[in-house]
Write a structure and sequence with these properties.
This protein has 9 helices and 5 strands; from the N terminus they run βββαββαααααααα. It is an alpha+beta fold. Strands 1-2-3-5-4 form a 5-stranded mixed β-barrel. α7 packs across α8, α7 crosses α9 and α8 packs across α9. It is globular, with a radius of gyration of 17 Å.
């Protein structure tokens, strides 16, 4: 299996990116969360899952290992394939999906294209009982989201705010939104 790809983003769309790795162009399907963290003509590391079926090979890529982990949990549920799992992860962030599962919110899941009421119930039942939901938290969590939102309200674009917050979190051990915003503004 290909665990991750490090390369240069050549093409980007809402459904996939083309990553140049050593002269080979890999078409990698991505969720909206991953898409929002990418930009064309930049270097990237994507954590991947290679899906092999009888008539095709498809690669799915994720910005974080946490998102890939929940993707793998989703495709372990009967009648949830990689495409449906990607639609779910495009609809919800990993932390929101965990909240939906914890609160037994069948309606939110069944409103997703390709997810019936029975499948939604199965996802909740199997994931709620078979994984430690607290272990699969989005690595950035609510603090990250709040800090990005605060910077957006101060006039930064969402992409710039995300980059600034990620840099602060990577370079410092800060846990409050206020401190993250202060450091991002320096």
């Amino acid at each position: 299996m290909v665990d991750f790809l490090c390369g240069h983003v050549v093409t980007i769309s809402h459904e996939f990116v083309i990553v140049n790795v050593g002269g080979f162009g890999f078409k990698v399907f991505v969720s909206m969360n991953t898409y929002n963290n990418l930009s064309e003509n930049s270097d990237v590391t994507l954590y991947t899952y290679l899906h092999i079926s009888k008539d095709s090979l498809s690669m799915y890529g994720f910005f974080s290992t946490q998102e890939r982990d929940i993707f793998l949990k989703l495709i372990s549920v009967s009648s949830v394939g990689p495409k449906t799992a990607m639609i779910i992860l495009t609809t919800f962030t990993t932390s929101k999906l965990i909240d939906v599962i914890k609160s037994n919110d069948v309606d939110s899941l069944k409103n997703i294209k390709g997810v019936s009421k029975k499948t939604a119930q199965r996802i909740i039942l199997e994931l709620f009982n078979n994984i430690q939901l607290n272990e699969i938290q989005d690595s950035r969590g609510q603090t990250y989201d709040d800090a990005v939102d605060a910077l957006v309200k101060l006039g930064f674009t969402r992409k710039t705010a995300q980059i600034k917050v990620e840099k602060v979190l990577r370079d410092n051990e800060i846990s409050t939104v206020e401190d993250i915003v202060k450091m991002a503004l320096l």
